[in-house]
Design brief:
467 residues; mainly beta; Immunoglobulin-like; Neuraminidase; six-stranded mixed β-sheet; 35 strands
Length: 467
Amino acid sequence: MRARNYCSPRENTRVENGELEAAKNQAQLLAKQINQAAEFASDLVQRSSSSDIVQSNKSLQERFEELSKIQFAATRVSSFMTFVSTCEPQSFSLGFTRNSETDPKRSTVEGLSQNFQAGVEAKIFICPKTYEGEIIKQHVDQVEVLIEPDDQVASLMINEEFSGNLQVKFVPKVPGAYNITAKINGEKLSNSPFKIQVEERQLELVGDLDLQNENPTGIAVNSKGLIAVASYKHCIMIFDKEGKYVRRLGHHGENPGELDYPVDVTFMNDDEILVAEEGNHRIQQFNVNTGNYIKIFGREGTREAEFKEPSSICMDDQGQFVVAEIGNERVQVLTKDGAPVFAFGDSGPEQLHYPQGCAFHKDIFIVSDYASNCLKLFDSSGKFLRKIGEEGEADGQFKDLWGLYIDRHGNILVCDNKRGVVQQFSIEGRFTGKSVAKLQSACGIAVMPDGRFLVSDFNGNKVFIMK
């Protein structure tokens, strides 16, 4: 473990003094134990015979396995981050503070004039300077950053750059005013706290894929940037990460490997996809590299693991696949082998009415309910939690919602088909932005590894790239 440029990878991390000291002591103890085991192994190699080494090998392996399983206690959460820089590369301490040449009053914060948008990662820079106003490239300082309102900050990270400046990355979840307080060695920077204004997000078109009358519906992207697009013309089209056409899977029919109105697609892994067929009332699995059909799940019906007009498919964090059905007005969760786990939304006061899209994020199922013109949120057991939105044509309202996606910052992005826009909401349900250009009929949405969004336009016969 290297202590230089240490900062916690946890989102919204606050390290209290007592917790920091406990973590430090635990790290030092672990380091001591590892060093003792390593020294014993070294002595064994230098002083022992081959038979002694073989006999001791198993016990050494068991000891290192035990040490590797030691876990550190979790820290509390808020939008406060303490960053401690240290110049000892091999040190096992979490950092330290000592007198430095840094003058907090002369140190500056840069990047405050940028266009901050809700749900988008922002970057500002703390620039430590000496009492003479010179830039410090090597320093030993404790830097503290607090962003308020703290419950509206999705994550906060501090990294030291080669130049010596400190990059502060954070995600403001909603529009509004935010105060940023920065301290170096316990002393506030001049004019701290700083105020920034966060605006609604504006998703702009930056490119497109021309699909030539294919009527694209659902869309998915794997970790390598490979794109799979479901076409209402009975096929799946594959594009590489640059948007270049690669191959087509399937053709019209009812046999295995054939497709009838595929409406959505999701990646099981980087090599395999699941396709929801509205016409054949089933799910099919394909290899995207070979184009070969692998397996069929389900058939038309109302029982478990049967489907009627499946409209959307996604994966949960357990590797199970989740299917929304318009015909059965429910959502089913199945194992990767197709065995039923449970279903929800088919009864009760918040029963689904033509669920069009579904997504899973941090133990929450989010369903776009077509007939109700709202999003409905359920917990990991299928219990209803709350809804987002209502019928209408204003921001935060829906006219004809279809596909949806939850990005890595927890933004919910929803395609409003008739209005031709993509709307963004916080996970708590607040409207936070939308696409600028009007599409003919926004249908499906996915995100590229670089953070750009892909939005399928059914009537426009294109997949638009947004950022």
